[in-house]
Design a protein that fits this description.
It is built from 15 helices and 13 strands. A hairpin with a 2-residue loop joins β1 (about 50-55) and β2. The longest helix has about 35 residues, at about 175-205. Strands 8, 9, 10, 11, 12 and 13 form a six-stranded antiparallel sheet that branches. Strands 2-1-7-6-5 form a five-stranded antiparallel sheet. It has a two-stranded antiparallel ribbon with strand order 3-4. About 50% of the residues lie in helices and about 20% in strands. The relative contact order is 0.08. By secondary structure, it is α+β, with helices and mostly antiparallel strands. α3 runs antiparallel to α6 (about 130-140), α12 crosses α14 and α13 crosses α14 (about 345-360). The chain folds into three domains: about 5-195, 2-Layer Sandwich (Beta-Lactamase); about 210-305, PAS domain (Beta-Lactamase, 2-Layer Sandwich), CATH 3.30.450.20; about 310-375, Orthogonal Bundle (Arc Repressor Mutant, subunit A). The radius of gyration is 28 Å and the shape is elongated. The termini are far apart. This is HTH luxR-type domain-containing protein. Keywords: DNA-binding, Transcription, Transcription regulation. It comes from Roseisolibacter agri. One of its GO terms (biological process) is regulation of DNA-templated transcription.
Amino acid sequence: MTLRLTSDDARRLREATAALLAPLAGPDPRAWWRDAEARLHALFPGANAMLSMPNGTRLRNDSQTVDPTQLQRMNEMSRADPRTGFHGSSDPASAWFNRYRRAHALELWTLAEGGGILESHGHDLRRNTVYHEGLAPAGFADFVCAASQNDAGEMWLTVGYQRPTARRHFDDEREVVGLLLPALQVAHHALATFGARRSALLASLDAMGDALLVVDADGRALHHNAALQRALAGEPAREQVLAAMHALAAEVRTLRGRAATAPVIPARTVQTALARYALRASLAPAALWGEEGLVQVALDAATPAIVTPPLAIPDALGLTAREAEVARLLARRLSNAEVAAALGVSAHTARHHTERVMQKLGAARRADVAVRLSGGP
């Protein structure tokens, strides 16, 4: 039978393929799978889609549409070899099928095909606990499964339905899932080859004191490191600062496309009610990240951006001279201990000053103090 695709089918197939091919485009594999799963739902209306990967001695089955309790049940029934990453099972017949599948390089099968293989070798699908207690209640009473295998282990994609009699969009869904198999294999290879290295790299970035944003070639945020999250935690205009960082990354990519050598990007500044931030951007080394076109944007230590003249603060806001001094320290997000050190007073006195100033200004947090001092509501 010749597979017939409408123009919409072909478009959705391309979108699902493209999503599967981009496992490193997001901050982690689960974010990638969320996007890929949404594309698969568009391609197979009414179907469930599930990704299965080894997670220690068990599998991690991931699906947005399957009840979490059922996913947990399948995880508990699963087995995985932590040395090889091969899938196993608590059910003897399913464990046998996994060994058979690997021995015969079976990469694509339906429930009917898998059940036929089991029955031809003396196993009864009607007594298979993985199917009757795991897959079927989870919405895979009928399914097509595609499997990828490499040196890191196995990764499965399962597309299935709540009822065996559920209406199908395609006459031969096995063939359509088969068209996605090469993309699944490429994604698995990318995760195995670069995923561990990228995880280690991101952990290193989180350990750094410099605040960094990494943006991919398509302009998506790949990683906000821990220092950046801390730097912007109390910033009311956080989204404004991040937008400026993304704009600078886009400028780097544009200049890179025009220049024969690496472009030189001057620093940028972003002014908010709280602070002035200096931004610097550079191309991320492809050899380090495993892909071209990534940009790193650094945010330098913020400097206070209090524009109200010091002597005007008491008159405008009803603060005493000492309270105005405390307010300026709070606007810089200094802790009570740091306020005490700056004023040469005890921690108890500093806490009293802090509470009184914030009460007078109607400020719930230190970031609000900066807004009040700069004339904000």
